[in-house]
Amino acid sequence: MAMAPGGEHAHHHGGQHDPAAMAPAANNVPAGFDRVLQAARAGGIDSSQLEIRPPRADGQAWLVREVDRSWPTQVDTIAVDPASYAITSRADFDTFPLIAKLIRWGVDMHMGILFGWPNQLLMAALGIALTVMIVLGYRMWWLRRPAPGAPGQTLTQAWRELSWPGRMTAVGVALALGWCLPVLGVSLAVFLAVDIVRWMAANRH
């Protein structure tokens, strides 16, 4: 599958490079993938699960990325020059900031792929436990619900009945959850707004 000199893509290189050497990278034939894979292995890309992307246009490099998200995480990425097959840039997971690593691990754990099937079982158990807690929470409210016409206790009222250390702990936990889980934070903020309105309305009577 190697191109003969003067082939379709020969004008891309102005005759400055050997067309036979450029053909594998330019035409994405298996030989090009093999040479890029060899360069990646020599450059420390040792994962058994790889994604290799050929250049989409002139002047672009091959992209080799590790996609093994089991433990230990292997998600290093390198760029390989199509002419010399030299590594021109790289992003190694070991050099990522701690926050970036925690986000990567957190996303992979949430998707159930960080530790394979044990992670999936853990996520399934957490999902089932959360569902059971929601059902039991509604059941507890139903058993202790106020009589018809009687004002019910709001979350704001229950918070005000706590000691000052308890209040500060509740606020700190809520802020931490809202910061780490923005969707949960927004939902909690809306819930608290509705609860405060209910508490204010109950106090007017």
List the main descriptive attributes of the protein structure presented here.
205 residues, alpha+beta, 4-stranded antiparallel sheet, elongated
Could you characterize the architecture of this molecule?
This protein is an alpha+beta fold and 205 residues long. It folds into three domains: 10-101, Nuclear Transport Factor 2, Chain: A; 115-145; 152-205, no CATH class. Helices cover 53% and strands 9% of the residues. The chain is built from seven helices and four strands; from the N terminus they run ααββββααααα. The protein has helices spanning 19-27, 30-42, 98-111, 117-143, 155-160, 164-180, 182-204; strands spanning 50-53, 62-66, 77-80, 87-91. It has a four-stranded antiparallel beta sheet, with helices on one face. Helix 1 packs across helix 2 and helix 6 (164-180) crosses helix 7 (182-204). It is elongated and about 80 Å long. Residues 1-27 have low confidence and may be disordered.
Short description:
The protein is α+β, with helices and mostly antiparallel strands and 205 residues long. It has seven helices and four strands, in the order ααββββααααα.
